[in-house]
Design a protein that fits this description.
By secondary structure, the chain is an all-alpha fold. The protein has a domain of 124 residues. Helix content is 65%, strand content 0%.
């Protein structure tokens, strides 16, 4: 029986909802023909649920393995590059690996915008705002084609980076610094879950809207003009309330965002930096429960291994100019190892 026949049987099995049989047939296909790209894609598909997420760590890893094989056989498959980046960053929590992955995409597709946006997003999550802004500025400086659906994300990231760069970099939480004051803020708020944006909006904006409606009867009177004026005031109050709520949400829940960054660092580096007291707190469990199952299972392994961050550890980032050779622009390579935003080496007590 040929590899193609096994592949066709795998398609039929997957369409029937028989995932195990589909995987068996697909693996038979790639065993006979290791370069059968379509069979490898079916393997990746079958290891994921209908929503594109993995049911567990094993399925996420096997799907990623299939994706890596596909991109090696056919580097032009941007859809598989995107899936691999999502599996690395979202499902497995391997953000440093995801940065390298997206840089590989730039080597094969130097004019593609998605790798730069994804790299900028990861750098923002890690608190590396200066380097993240350079990724977005590359899109603007090179006048790259941005899809309509990506404009909002680019604008949001650029605003975030511009605001962060203007702030004191010492105030940006760096989880690899054991004595960073951000740890104290986390310990102070770790016994409570974060406040939702909806709750803040209801507590702040609703009373204002109620006051506007009550006062409008006395100040604006009745009639069409009064109705229009009241509607405009309500609209302005809602818009202002939404903007104020977003700022308050990030300010109030900053310890939660800091803890999320620390958890992402642990999952990316494989080192334990979070204390046992924080790890068993309400806030930690709240964040952990909202992570994908594969991410949770991998984090449990990291916690059990108890690998401590080495002394004088420095953050290493990929060479973001490695794609220039592909477009005929060669410059002197700079060191890809550097201390993020002036971060001090981690020191154990």
């Amino acid at each position: 029986m040929s590899a193609e026949n096994h592949y066709l049987d795998a398609i039929e099995a997957l369409d029937s909802g028989n995932r195990e049989d589909a995987l068996e047939k697909a693996y038979e296909a790639v065993k006979l023909d290791p370069e059968h790209v379509d069979a490898w894609q079916l393997i990746s598909d079958a290891h994921l649920l209908a929503d594109g997420k993995a049911a567990n760590l094993i399925d996420a890893s096997k799907s990623l393995t299939a994706v890596k094989t596909i991109t090696k056989l056919d580097p032009t498959r941007i859809d598989m590059w995107v899936r691999g980046g999502r599996l690395l960053a979202d499902e497995l929590g391997l953000m440093f690996d995801a940065l390298d992955w997206w840089q590989q995409v730039r080597v094969h597709a130097p004019y593609e915008v998605t790798p730069l946006i994804e790299q900028a997003t990861i750098l923002a999550d890690l608190g590396l705002y200066k380097e993240g802004r350079k990724r977005i500025e590359t899109i603007l400086n090179e006048n790259m084609d941005v899809a309509t659906s990506q404009y909002g994300r680019v604008h949001q990231l650029l605003g975030l980076f511009n605001t962060a760069v203007e702030q004191n970099p010492d105030g940006h939480f760096k989880p690899w610094e054991r004595r960073h004051p951000g740890w104290g803020a986390i310990e102070a708020k770790m016994r409570k879950a974060p406040v939702s944006e909806t709750t803040i909006f209801m507590l702040i904006t609703v009373p204002v809207l109620f006051g506007v409606i009550v006062l409008s009867n006395f100040l604006a009177g009745e009639g069409l003009g009064a109705f229009c004026l009241t509607s405009i005031v309500i609209f302005i109050a809602v818009v202002a309330g939404m903007r104020f709520t977003k700022n308050m949400f990030r300010t109030i829940n900053r310890p939660a965002f800091n803890l999320l960054r620390a958890m992402n660092f642990e999952s990316s580096s494989g080192f334990n930096i979070i204390s046992e007291e924080i790890r068993t707190s309400v806030l930690y469990m709240y964040i952990l429960q909202r992570k994908p199952v594969a991410w949770q299972e991998r984090m449990l392994i990291i916690v059990e291994e108890k690998n401590k961050l080495p002394k004088n550890w420095n953050l290493e980032l990929p060479d973001f100019d490695s794609h220039l050779d592909e477009i005929g622009h060669i410059e002197d390579a700079e060191s890809s190892s550097w201390e993020a935003d002036g971060a001090e080496p981690y020191e154990e007590e």
